[in-house]
Design goal:
The radius of gyration is 21 Å and the shape is globular. It has one domain. The chain is about 85% helix and about 0% strand. Helix 8 runs antiparallel to helix 9. It contains nine helices and no strands. By secondary structure, the protein is an all-alpha fold. The N and C termini lie far apart (about 50 Å).
Length: about 240
């Protein structure tokens, strides 16, 4: 009887989720909301596509300069879409005290950051899957030739954009002019990543093999590591009142 009584609390005690499980909880929440509404991907994707179309009409001067312009257009549209996507993602957390509910939940602050950043990363990758083919079509690029290389660059560059955007989106979520402040703070911070991504994409479009772009990939990897580590370490401080 004593043994059964002593083991009952341990059998009924809830196991605290691991750090990765906590991050997945936040990620699943954002994905479930997005699947039911589609507002982040649809609105940001449409905006990015509109930037590509307008840029192609304004700057396209024939095959001679198409490869030079297309690299900048792709990453310009992605950066604008990232700010819009981040604003909408954090706007959800402002509504009806959702952010306060998330903070009082038994979740690690770094796990919340990881889950939010993974959600933003997924949204941006979907947007890039729309932007890259559209840019290839409008700038007369061979998608089968350059598509895999651009996708590889995007897979390395986008995590840093998502991590830094999530961190500073949290910093501005409680401000009134959060969208303007986010853009003002985020774009200077993203400049090194965007410049490296544009340069690597331009070299790829100029015929340089992907194997010779290792320096750009290493540079983007360094930026990713800095932004991810900074987000994991600083998110808890920035998100508190």
């Amino acid at each position: 009887m004593t043994t059964a009584t002593a083991s009952a609390p341990s059998l009924g005690a809830a196991r605290r989720p691991s750090w990765f499980e906590q991050a997945l909880v936040v990620l699943r929440k954002d994905l479930a909301i997005e699947l039911s509404t589609g507002e982040v991907v649809v609105s940001s994707g449409f905006f990015a596509l509109l930037v590509v179309i307008l840029a192609s009409l304004s700057f396209y001067g024939g095959p001679a300069n198409a490869r030079m312009v297309a690299a900048g257009v792709i990453w310009l549209s992605v950066s604008f879409a990232a700010v819009l996507a981040l604003g909408k993602t954090w706007q959800r957390e402002r509504e009806e005290g959702a952010l306060d509910g998330l903070l009082v939940a038994p979740l690690s602050r770094s796990a919340i950051f990881a889950g939010k950043a993974l959600g933003v990363l997924g949204f941006l990758l979907v947007i890039e899957l729309v932007v890259i083919p559209a840019a290839a079509l409008l700038f007369a690029l061979d998608l089968l030739e350059v598509g895999p290389g651009v996708l590889a660059i995007a897979l390395v560059a986008t995590p840093g954009v998502a991590a830094s955007g999530t961190l500073f989106g949290a910093m501005t979520v409680r401000t009134q002019a959060r969208d303007l402040l986010l853009a003002v703070v985020l774009f200077p911070l993203l400049t090194p990543t965007l410049l490296a991504a544009v340069a690597a994409t331009r070299e790829l479009f100029s015929g340089v093999p992907l194997s010779e772009l290792g320096d750009y990939f290493r540079l983007l990897g360094v930026f990713d590591a800095v932004f991810i580590a900074g987000g994991l370490g600083l998110f808890g401080t920035l998100i508190e009142r």
